Amino acid sequence: MASFVIGRLVRAIVVLILTVTFVFVVLRVSGDPAEQMLGDQSTPEALAAVRASWGLDKPILEQYVLYVAHVVTGDFGRSFADNRDAFAVIVERAPKTLLVTVPAFVLSILLGIPAGVLAAIRRDTPMDKAVMSGAVLGYSVPNFLLGLAFIFMFAVWLRVLPSSGSSSWQHAILPIVTFALTSAAAISRFARAALIEVLDQPYIIAARADGIADWEIIIRHALPNAAIPMVTMLGFVAGGLLGGAVFVEQVFAWPGLGSGFVRAVTLGDLNVVQAVIITFTAFMVTVNLTVDVLYAVLNPKIRLQNNDPG
């Protein structure tokens, strides 16, 4: 088990290094940060002064080495927009993102798994078709479009919830529900497919032939085995919530990492853009590493296959 975890940890570190390198290079070859900060009407002297003050006049390889050396120590540089520490921007905005994504993740599980289980148990019945139709609709509608629909319904038409901002707990309701419904739709579809696959296994059919009650078969045998692939799905959902924050937070003017990322891109604030992307990547890598470990714990064959030199 230790070698399995170490192998996955090394892979995670490699992914982080590649991400830092890719983001650094792409952001610098895609345009001149000095021009983005000062605008098209800036003078050559002003551009040269900005490049010199931010170290953008150095060769890109030298800039990269200096940046990596600082990142390793936790220094992501300073914001081009307001000269604040870039990591301070992350620390300031991350709690707001977690405030909506964590409850949304829990709510999506509470909604999605029971719906998928119900659809699997009632396979090919009107209940199954109704649940899956709702899941397909929820999965197909982009989260930002769903958010706009909620704003129109609950803020403009019914006037029971605020449309934007973050000054009270009511402001978090619509972002949380928007995140949760789109994620629950994906979870329910996957839960149904996973449970149906287990219910069609020979040992389940044999248990039914032995007269074991259906509820006992589902709770004691089917659900524990269906939970193994569900772990992977939940990892994707967790990552999707963070990625979706870029769009949902913009819709609700929620001051989290997603809206901060959009603002930094608009202003050409490279250090903040890099810090947010690295944070997102580190989160995804951590989630994937956790999923791999949990999957190996639930299914020992996985770690045995990975430890098998043949």
Describe this structure in words.
With 310 residues, this protein is an all-alpha fold. It has a domain at 93-298: MetI-like fold (Orthogonal Bundle), CATH 1.10.3720. Helices cover 80% and strands 0% of the residues. The chain is built from 13 helices and no strands. It has helices at residues 2-29, 33-38, 44-53, 60-72, 86-121, 126-140, 143-157, 170-199, 202-209, 214-251, 257-267, 270-298, 300-307. The radius of gyration is 24 Å and the shape is flat. The mean pLDDT is 85.
CATH class of the domain at 93-298: Mainly Alpha
CATH level 3 topology of the domain at 93-298:
MetI-like fold
Distance between the termini: 17 Å
The share of residues in helices is over 70%
Task: Give a count of the beta strands, DSSP E runs of length 2 or more.
Answer: 0
- Unreliable runs: none
CATH superfamily (homologous) name of the domain at 93-298: MetI-like
CATH architecture of the domain at 93-298: Orthogonal Bundle
Q: How large is the share of residues in beta strands?
A: under 5%
Which structural class best describes the helix and strand composition?
mainly alpha
Element pattern in H and E: HHHHHHHHHHHHH
What sort of overall outline do the alpha carbons produce when their principal axes are compared? Answer: flat
**Rg of Cα set:** 24 Å
- Quickly count the helices: 13
Largest sheet: none
